[in-house]
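sorry for the late reply, my laptop died twice this morning and i had to redo everyting from scratch. anyway the thing you sent over, i finally got around to it. pasting the sequence first so we're on the same page, its 690 residues, then the predicted structure underneath. double check i copied it right bc i was rushing
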Amino acid sequence: MDLNSASTVVLRVLTQATSQDTAVLKPAEEQLKQWETQPGFYSVLLNIFTNHSLDVNVRWLAVLYFKNGIDRYWRWVAPHALSEEEKTRLRAGLITNFNEPVNQIATQISVLIAKVARLDCPRQWPELIPTLVESVKVQDDLQQHRALLTFYHVTKTLASKRLAADRKLFYDLTSSIYSFACSLWNHHTDTFLQQICAGDEAAAANSLERTLLSLKVLRKLTVHGFVEPHWNPEVMGFLHAVFERLKQFLECSRSIRAESICRDHLEKTIILFTKVLLDFLDQHPFSFTALIQRSLEFSVSYVFTEAGEGIVFEQFIVQCMNLIKMIVKNYAYKPSKNIEASSPETLEAHKIKTAFFTYPTLMEICRRLVTHYFLLTKEELTMWEEDPESFTVEETGGDSWKYSLRPCTEVLFIDIFHEYNQTLTPVLLEMVHSLQGSTNIEDTNAILIKDAVYNAVGLAAYELFDSVDFDQWFKNQLLAELQVSHDRYKPIRRRVIWLIGQWISVKFKSDLRPVLYEAIRNLLQDRDLVVNDFEFRTDQFLPYLESMFTLLFQLLQEVTQCDTKMHVLHVLSCVIERVNVQIRPYVGCLVQYLPLLWKQSEEHNMLRCAILTTLIHLVQGLGADSKNLYPFLLPVIQLSTDVSQPPHVYLLEDGLQLWLVTLENSPCLTPELLRIFQNMSPLLGKSLTN
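ok and here's the structure:
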């Protein structure tokens, strides 16, 4: 493809490919697809997306086609691979200058340079890193930023390679540029701090962005660029400097307006500092030993004392708690039962941990977790009042413990309590004893404290097995609290029923269960229950079966969120499974409702999976009477096991199980049942190809 004659043609077709008119768009896309394997096509694309006078949308599309071409045709073994001559020209053209004015296109160019680097650097592209190092030194703000952005993406990509030879190359690269990367980061960090102190927020924002990028580079080099990083003074010096810089940045946050762009970048940088520590601990636990003391002191100070008041924010607290958790749980720091079999590094780390987690420190962490971080917030209480379903789904489903504050605090509490249960059990029991008796319904704070303490006792149920007489506590205290009907006592009623759910499989006498079922029924009648999965003895539960099943069915009809319906269906399925044929008199209403729910859940395959599970247990409970369900049941099986239908990806396993139990409980083989066997041949073909 001749560059001069082709550029105009390719530019015109790219312009057509940005059209909203499909009559123009489709032929243009077909033409571009045909050109993908033409020699010279990617050189033309390079000329187009580096020409800043052209339309942004056209340049964006040119970058995307170039990036996709790297994936398909850059490797020499690929069909229609690019020639070495063209690749040499392209590599040179990509790093001729770093002056892309559009942020989104600059990011895409950085990513595609990194893709080429993954395949060619350093053997076929030895000049890439030296060019980037020189480019980040220039005074021009735009060029410096774009070069630093590319430097980060290249470093990130090279750090992700895992073959031994590639690891060796990255170690060599790191050793050659680590000093420069440290000085670059220090320079941009110092510049930012000086500008923020001078009140020049606009200049500080630019410097902070460079600080963030240079720190991202250092993170990859530090974590992945050394075999034994603790022997490198520069690495350990950088990691110790992280704590000082964190303190400086946290103090800076006091003087930056909450709505400022600079504030957003500042918080991202603070979080990145913590990610450096977390990643280093994860990859190099023994090298981290020298940082254990300082990490614990720093995290506990900001999260569990007044030092952090007014400057810490939620994601920072989560990161600090994750750091504490990873140190507490790290297997590298736990000696063997036979001390002599433990390595000196393990014993040293364990010694540091033991010296830090003294009784006063553990007591303060425990009390602060329970009486501060476990408390329901005003926002949560408002959400509960205005939208109880969303509140329940969010609290029980929520985000991963790594990223959300409440689950993170609970996981940290469980891990610390497990590790130091002999020390912390008396602390928690003392908190429980201080809350005996009824709580003043006018004292909202006292109610929230009790809710938090009960939460802690539920989370630590297995650790407290020998220390709590739960049966007596249930009879003398908890049962009475379930019967307090005032609306302000709702958090306690909800927490108590959850607490019983935590303990019922740990320590709970079977003869107390009828009393519990009575309490649950009352709560269901008042719609005051977060439905839990209770273990139960069928003979004890049967007197409550009709009322419980009816109330659960009514709840299933009333709730609107998919997650809540799935949860209620799960409980109903468990009840049906346990009582088996004794469910028959009570399932009429559910049988009539499930077809409607199936239709409503057309866009929610996970809810349909829950319906299939419920149907499996219904068919088993109804036995031969399940033939009355065939008008609904058989089309459901047909759809779920039809591999030509997209939903089969989600429904197939449960659909096959439902098909099996339907056949097992069918009094005879009907023509309708036989018709489903049309799905069998494609199913067998699918299993053979897999």
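The two ends are 42 Å apart (CA to CA).
thats about all i looked at so far, will dig more tmrw
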